[in-house]
Amino acid sequence: xxxxxxxxxxxxxxxxxxxxxxxxxxxxxxxxxxxxxxxxxxxxxxxxxxxxxxxxxxxxxxxxxxxxxxxxxxxxxxxxxxxxxxxxxxxxxxxxxxxxxxxxxxxxxxxxxxxxxxxxxxxxxxxxxxxxxxxxxxxxxxxxxxxxxxxxxxxxxxxxxxxxxxxxxxxxxxxxxxxxxxxxxxxxxxxxxxxxxxxxxxxxxxxxxxxxxxxxxxxxxxxxxxxxxxxxxxxxxxxxxxxxxxxxxxxxxxxxxxxxxxxxxxxxxxxxxxxxxxxxxxxxxxxxxxxxxxxxxxxxxxxxxxxxxxxxxxxxxxxxxxxxxxxxxxxxxxxxxxxxxxxxxxxxxxxxxxxxxxxxxxxxxxxxxxxxxxxxxxxxxxxxxxxxxxxxxxxxxxxxxxxxxxxxxxxxxxxxxxxxxxxxxxxxxxxxxxxxxxxxxxxxxxxxxxxxxxxxxxxxxxxxxxxxxxxxxxxxxxxxxxxxxxxxxxxxxxxxxxxx
Amino acid sequence: xxxxxxxxxxxxxxxxxxxxxxxxxxxxxxxxxxxxxxxxxxxxxxxxxxxxxxxxxxxxxxxxxxxxxxxxxxxxxxxxxxxxxxxxxxxxxxxxxxxxxxxxxxxxxxxxxxxxxxxxxxxxxxxxxxxxxxxxxxxxxxxxxxxxxxxxxxxxxxxxxxxxxxxxxxxxxxxxxxxxxxxxxxxxxxxxxxxxxxxxxxxxxxxxxxxxxxxxxxxxxxxxxxxxxxxxxxxxxxxxxxxxxxxxxxxxxxxxxxxxxxxxxxxxxxxxxxxxxxxxxxxxxxxxxxxxxxxxxxxxxxxxxxxxxxxxxxxxxxxxxxxxxxxxxxxxxxxxxxxxxxxxxxxxxxxxxxxxxxxxxxxxxxxxxxxxxxxxxxxxxxxxxxxxxxxxxxxxxxxxxxxxxxxxxxxxxxxxxxxxxxxxxxxxxxxxxxxxxxxxxxxxxxxxxxxxxxxxxxxxxxxxxxxxxxxxxxxxxxxxxxxxxxxxxxxxxxxxxxxxxxxxxxxxxxxxxxxxxxxxxxxxxxxxxxxxxxxxxxxxxxxxxxxxxxxxxxxxxxxxxxxxxxxxxxxxxxxxxxxxxxxxxxxxxxxxxxxxxxxxxxxxxxxxxxxxxxxxxxxxxxxxxxxxxxxxxxxxxxxxxxxxxxxxxxxxxxxxxxxxxxxxxxxxxxxxxxxxxxxxxxxxxxxxxxxxxxxxxxxxxxxxxxxxxxxxxxxxxxxxxxxxxxxxxxxxxxxxxxxxxxxxxxxxxxxxxxxxxxxxxxxxxxxxxxxxxxxxxxxxxxxxxxxxxxxxxxxxxxxxxxxxxxxxxxxxxxxxxxxxxxxxxxxxxxxxxxxxxxxxxxxxxxxxxxxxxxxxxxxxxxxxxxxxxxxxxxxxxxxxxxxxxxxxxxxxxxxxxxxxxxxxxxxxxxxxxxxxxxxxxxxxxxxxxxxxxxxxxxxxxxxxxxxxxxxxxxxxxxxxxxxxxxxxxxxxxxxxxxxxxxxxxxxxxxxxxxxxxxxxxxxxxx
Lengths: 500, 1006
Prior knowledge:
A: alpha/beta, eight-stranded mixed sheet, B: eight-stranded antiparallel beta barrel
């Protein structure tokens, strides 16, 4: 997954010794969209689920691919909250750790990245949309509020804040955790520079590890695994442990039922030609020749004639072969016509360490209820002043999107941001401010959901469709294409029987 | 706008009054600031109920998942998370209202009824009359686009109310009230269809169509309700002068203070608010304007003024701030197990209404026409399980409007709570621990069986009723329960692993949040358990404990739960905590366990005019700022409450729905009334002028229902809107826009005149008499036989002593008298309340005879008591002469064709020796000649011991109910009344004895 795709271009920005990376999927002549991942994540957050090469007409795409398809040029920034940047710093000489907080990200990373994008695009003064997720949205909001990113200087006209803005409100368990001083104490010791949710990395400081061990198992997605950090046998449980650790560090990141397969377990994708009645999701498929078996996790795509599809199989034992027939029970279901493609569980590749200073900064903000600078006093409202409102009001469009059941940032974070921004978008400008709270969604599944390209991405597109002067083009067409259905809950992306 | 002012005017609140005011001010070109404490709600963004569980898919089925999501009610409750509903405990009353942009319109039941003309006839300032207000009613109806439920859309519950009306002989009193809902094409369109501007010229936002989901009270996800943010407020927000919007709307801004300020000759106000976006820790916001309009709802408006007055911010000169508060006689009831399906979760929250008109005999002012209204309630289907809680045995027989009315002013006698069934609950506990249910127990309508079913046991006398399946759920989501089960270890310790100050701070903060909203300590105290003295429980302790408990529930195991309860609440009170804690938990679990008949649950909302007002005031509280309290007259002083309950029982009863009635839990458990229609507090004529201006505060106006001097007796939203229209027009006339009228006025008039009947259905109802409530209140009856002697008077009236000596002399041997009386208390609850309020309660003697022997010229046959001559024989109980009480008998009969009266007293007095038996069975009497008034005979009557035990005791009978729980209540209530009085006379040191007994009990018995 993390090996660069052929169509991606990487550009490294070095800011005071912090190596940021800009990744772009080129789509010249199209409006640029800058995507900001959350802290501890990396830009790959916007590249899951990977495109399946086996068949055409997929409806399940990553946000990057989807935006590309919809006629935008997606730019992905590994800012200083990225696991990749932190890894690079950890292996390098170091020295920049003192600057790894949200302030520096808002003040340095964003303006630099935006200027670089304009530069790389040939200096054209075109508008740019910025989409931030989680703390990526937080630094974006902070940058706009304090004016380090502006429409005038950086041509930022459209802003989409996913799950967070200037107002930080974790759910109940998170609130309880932020009250605990363990992180502040660790920071004060000066010995710990980052916290890594990955299990194979250096162990957590003792105090934090103990806190984790005592964390109620009712709040762990995989309680049966969570107390076995040392031995990761089988590999699956290792991933589960990481999932638990993420839930402990930030709150449950997603609802597993929503996810496209591949996060927690290795998956096999196989192009097939249909024979007879298709299999149901959840049924076990067995290869006639190899004897390998796997559970059908997803029917990714169906060709126009309905004859060929790509199947995603999970919990695979053995190795499927090209050309063999897949059966469920005695029933013949399909024949493989491509070499089955094996993919590792994605979770470890998606997350990396979070700098402790940034972690503490976010926790302070969460305790306070709203964002403020690193060294701000407890009740410092300086980011929420009239000027901040004016800065937001100068934008063309602002959209706020989150999941109704977000277990990482309570949806009230977005609700409060919305009420606050309402004061900047008055009268006829009100329609330029939108809020969408998606039923049934949590935090990361807004991006990784198996139906995200149907439920979530159109909301993002609605918010940025007219970026770069496409306003006159065809508002109605764009809107109707995006399909403004009211999303009740993410029903399965397809009927159970994939041939229905 | 000129400095120093920020705005031309400030509007506080966006409910019906606020929306109208903001809209009209903006239309007149004023630049205004609108402050609303609640959030904005968009389509599909209202809180869902119950809070979402993952895996709940659109079709209502719930997939079991292994994901753990804590239930989150924060968006439903104002106090918990600045959510939609604000429920406040105000002492005698629990007031419910909305918080949100659009105010009450977000959650109301959409009913727009005009107040009948009688409302404005008394108590309102000149200028207010239906004739005058009709133009504004029209305008409001047009703006909100109201219309009755279209034919073909009538849901089952409305049809059931219609049927019930027919069965009770009230078919003519049923009507369909106009509703502010968009029904266009509801039959054809499906989810998601939205439309804008249905009629050209009427400014509106895009709206959806009603899909009859029953969720009106939790905000319409489809925006099919014509809520204010879609019409009035939309106009206000869209208006611009040049590039500048005229209205600046700030949501999540709660006004906390209004100060009069002056800058030289300029006088105005500074309004201070808390910005909840940031929270109370942020700087308060301040805006200044010469004109401020209070539209925060009756209670909040009054509270703001009271607090401002108290702090000296305002100089309100009008007297009576806080007076004339009216809860609109609101009463909410649920009827379980109806004969037919009601499907309370289908249709708009209210579809139909039933009006009961009655003539109330006023004190001296002559007859007053009054009414009570009953409406078919609805609720979102998801709420039905919650409602089911009120079917649990905990509520059995506790649902009387009057029977359990506590009188806060009467300290002498505790309010007659329905203790007997609860004592029976104790038996149930005993039964539970022994593994079998006490066979003696019989709750109303087979609750026993349901209880057994819920406990997974077979009832003793056979199987469960097969024709009515019960779903059984638990309030605790199954996943949570599983989580609890999975984790039986050290949860408490884990909780303790957080540093102690962390936990303490967290608990304190959460407790603070919850604390203001409900009197939990009172709730707990209302669940009596033997040996458990909860009287000393402090609110803060209970709340803290409950928060801890909730955390235990969420994170801990059941064992920890027991431990938490037992170590906390009970430790101080009961030494034998283990066992009791176990029972307590069992009780809670049992009380919260609910069962439902599918769709056979009906909800009733009732309202009317209160005959006596209440009062809002600030009272000192233990912590910091004084608390707002409502004082209401005792239920016994409000005759409409009795009628209301009777009518509710009629609807629920055997003649109509054949279900089981439960009244609102706040009333049932806490004795607090519930109101969603608060009015008054700043009455016009006292506190404000007819135009709404607060006396003594130029430029400060009360626009909302707080200014209503009398209650409207119907759903008040239409009247609030109309009166706000009237007042704001008047204001504009007085402040530089003479002759200004609402731009829609003419159109509205024409539109309304074509719909006159449907817009004011009550007007066309008033013909013909309406049947009175059919069933009689619970009464009490017994027979008493007395025998004795009589003798002619010798000289004048005789002393008691002389009579007794005559009795000893044996005068009565030949001149005997025998009475056989049936004594009946027609309305036991009223009887008891009379006693409590100091009126001598009276039992009538409905049947009886007097037999005299030894009177010349009179036969020895029994002489029947006379009923036709317009006088009633009766027995008057317990006039209070300090340490002495008496019972006075008055029997009318004919002696030799002549009417005469037997009048006598039993003297209840503590003399030497054991005299209680003698005092209560001995009647000194005189027989007076009817025409002359001379004493004809006198003597003593006594109840023989054999008659007392053989006849009188077995004859005790509760009338007009066959509900065993009610019967047991009646016995207990009468017993407590009778013997309580005796004890006060004969054992005046009772209080101390009880104390001692209690302490002994605590030591020896759990």
